[in-house]
């Protein structure tokens, strides 16, 4: 039996990341469905105060609109010197979210954050992700992942998206997360960790 699962994101890289996790876990019989493959529905307002709350908001909206099990995530960069900010505001830190293309928004967010941290020596940071699975039967599962590291002083690398060019993972000395291959990133990243924890619940949908 093959089960269709909606991935509530307009970022094709996130769908590919989940597919890679399922493949690595030996989970077949799951067809991932992109938002572009379903009838358009209004994007829910992500007004939660935590990553978990926002992930659940998006997953619940996907189920309600399509009747499919839905996976969604909310993630961001937490800077110790900024008391965990940008946190849940990461995607709209510069105020440009939804106003420009994704790359322009990423650049604006990165530039603003680097300017705000220019004179701060304490640069500990972590990527945080919460992934949620909501089923049409009302079951809800969540999992969180963290990727510890530090904030760079200038962007490095061409891969990834978001804050990847200015994040230095603790487990890849000398390379930003934007300098890692997709396989390297999936094996270490906050979202990869959360998705792997969620994978058994996704596999259970086939029964």
Blueprint (SSEs and pairs):
Elements: E1 3-7, H1 12-24, E2 30-33, H2 51-66, E3 70-79, H3 102-116, E4 124-134, E5 140-151, E6 167-169, H4 182-188, H5 190-204
Parallel strand pairs: 1-2, 1-3
Antiparallel strand pairs: 3-4, 4-5, 5-6
Subunit structure: Homodimer.
Family: Belongs to the HAM1 NTPase family.
Binding site for Mg(2+): 74
Structure summarized in a few sentences:
The chain has helices at 12-24, 51-66, 102-116, 182-188, 190-204; strands at residues 3-7, 30-33, 70-79, 124-134, 140-151, 167-169. By secondary structure, the chain is of the alpha/beta class.
Give keywords.
single chain, 207 residues, alpha/beta, six-stranded mixed sheet, metal ion binding, dITP diphosphatase activity, XTP diphosphatase activity, nucleotide metabolism, ribonucleoside triphosphate phosphatase activity
The neighbouring-strand order within the major sheet is: 2-1-3-4-5-6
| Low-confidence parts | none
> Strand count, sense and closure of the main sheet?
6 strands, mixed
Task: Please tell me the overall pLDDT.
Answer: 93
């Amino acid at each position: 039996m093959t089960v269709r699962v909606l991935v509530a994101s307009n970022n094709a890289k996130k769908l590919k990341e989940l597919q890679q996790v399922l493949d690595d876990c030996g989970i077949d019989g799951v067809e991932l469905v992109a938002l572009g493959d379903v009838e358009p529905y209004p994007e829910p307002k992500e007004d939660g105060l935590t990553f978990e709350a926002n992930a659940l908001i998006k997953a619940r909206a996907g189920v309600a609109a399509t009747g499919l099990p839905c996976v969604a995530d909310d993630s961001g960069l937490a800077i110790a010197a900024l008391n965990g900010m940008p946190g849940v505001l990461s995607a709209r830190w510069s105020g440009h979210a939804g106003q420009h293309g994704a790359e322009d928004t990423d650049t604006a967010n990165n530039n603003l954050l680097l300017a705000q941290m220019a004179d701060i020596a304490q640069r500990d940071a972590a990527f945080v992700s919460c992934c949620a699975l909501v089923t049409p039967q009302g079951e809800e599962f969540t999992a969180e992942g963290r990727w510890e590291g530090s904030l760079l002083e200038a962007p490095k690398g061409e891969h990834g998206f978001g804050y990847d060019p200015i994040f230095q993972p603790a487990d890849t000395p000398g390379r930003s997360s934007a300098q890692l291959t997709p396989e390297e990133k999936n094996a270490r990243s906050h979202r990869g960790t959360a998705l792997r924890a969620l994978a058994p619940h996704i596999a259970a949908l086939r029964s």
